[in-house]
TrEMBL record:
Residues 1-77, 83-145 form the Ig-like domain. Keywords: Disulfide bond, Immunoglobulin domain, Repeat. GO terms for molecular function: axon guidance receptor activity. Gene3D superfamilies: Immunoglobulins. GO terms for biological process: homophilic cell adhesion via plasma membrane adhesion molecules; synapse organization. It comes from Pectinophora gossypiella. GO terms for cellular component: axon; neuronal cell body; plasma membrane. This is Ig-like domain-containing protein.
Length: 145
């Protein structure tokens, strides 16, 4: 997914813009992953495998013969989710009137994913039922079947 950071600068003569990340100068990447433009734009193409290398604190510095100006910091946090559930729901058989639990552990992700259950293709409204709860880990507990 793309991320764009913008550093708007004015000055005479026209300032050059330098980008920094976590205290180090940020060069353009030859693979097109990171592109710095003269007008102060920084384009990042965040790849799943490079997520950690893109996260950080960014800022820009504008310089010309008159001096330099440093921008405020901007933090880049990349949201991710793995493709596979750690535990997928399975069929459960219980006697009438007995409690049931359908297990589901969502994939790891940042921020932490939340689980929503569907019944017959529709989001199951836990609040209306009153006898159904979802555990912190994502399991569906039915108090009485």
């Amino acid at each position: 997914e793309p991320a764009t950071l913008r550093c708007v600068v004015e000055g005479r003569p026209k300032p050059t813009v330098l980008w920094y990340k976590d205290g180090s100068p940020l060069p353009s990447a030859e693979d097109g992953h990171r592109v710095l433009l003269e007008d102060g734009l920084l384009f990042l193409r965040v790849n799943r495998g490079k997520k950690e290398s893109d996260e950080g604190v960014y800022w820009c510095v504008a310089r010309n013969l008159a001096g330099e100006a440093v921008s405020h910091n901007a933090s880049l946090n990349v949201a991710v989710i793995r493709d596979d559930f750690r535990v997928e729901p399975r069929d459960v058989h219980v006697a009438a009137g007995e409690p049931a639990q359908l297990e589901c552990t969502p994939p790891k992700g940042v921020p932490e994913p939340t689980v929503h259950w569907l019944k017959d293709g529709q989001i199951y409204d836990i609040e209306v039922s009153g006898r159904v709860t979802v555990t912190e880990s994502g399991n569906l507990k039915i108090l009485e079947t």
